[in-house]
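Input chain follows. Return C-alpha cells only.
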Amino acid sequence: MYYVLQPFRVLWKIWFFLLFVVSMIMLYPAFVYLFKKESRFHQAFRLMLMWSQALTFASGLVMDIKRPENMPKSPYLICPNHGSYLDIITMYRVFSDYFIFMGKIEIVKWPFFGIFFTKGMNISVNRESKLGAHEAFERAKRECDNGHNIVIFPEGTIPTTAPKMRAFKNGAFKLSLEKNIPIVPVTFVNNWRRLQAGPALRNSGGPGISRVIIHPPVYPEAYQALGVVKMKQDIFEIIEKPLRDSYGDY
C-alpha cells in the first residue's frame, strides 16, 4: 500500500509546493509594502491569515481544532510541537489574534518566506551567538510589553524522529516566568503525516485532516518557586500526551 500511494504523495507535494511558490510570488509586493512600516505589521498579519486559509483550502487540508473553554488575554506565549513545515502555515489557521514568530536565524535565508524575519515583524534567533540569543530574548520581552503574543517552538527545529519530540529548550519558559505571562501549549497531532520533512520521494504527504489541540493555558504563578525545569517538563508532557495517545510509545 505504501508504494501504491507514494506517487500520489509526491504529486501532492509538488502541487503544494507550486501553490506555495506561486501565491507567495503574487503576494510578495504587498508584503514588501506592508513591512516598510511597523504600523502596517497588523495588516501584514491579516494578509497572512487570508493566505493561509486559501493555501490550506486549495491543497485539500481541513483543520480540526480542539480549543479550550477559556483563553488568556494577550500577551501569552504559544508553544507547539514541531513536526512539519506545515506547522508554521497552519498556525495562522489556529490563532487569529495577532502573534509573532520567534525562529532560528536560518529562516532569513529561505526564498520568499525569509522576508517575514528580515523586516522586523518576527524575531530571528542566532543560537550560535550568546549575544544574538540575548538580543532576541530582550526583543521578545519588549514584544510582550507591547501586548503581542509570541509563538516559540520549544524544540527549536523539526526533529527527524517526528512525531517523537526533541527535548525542549529553556527560552520560552524562562520568558514566561520573567514576564509573568501564561503559556498556551499546542499539539499538532498529525501535521508530520500531512507533510513530512525530508525527501519528497520517500516521505509521507497528502491532503486530509490536520488535527490540532490547543491545551488550557499554563500560568507561571504556580512555577515561580518550582522554576524553569519543572515548568518545561510539565508542558512537554501536556503536548506529548495526544501524540502518545495516537501513536503509542512511538
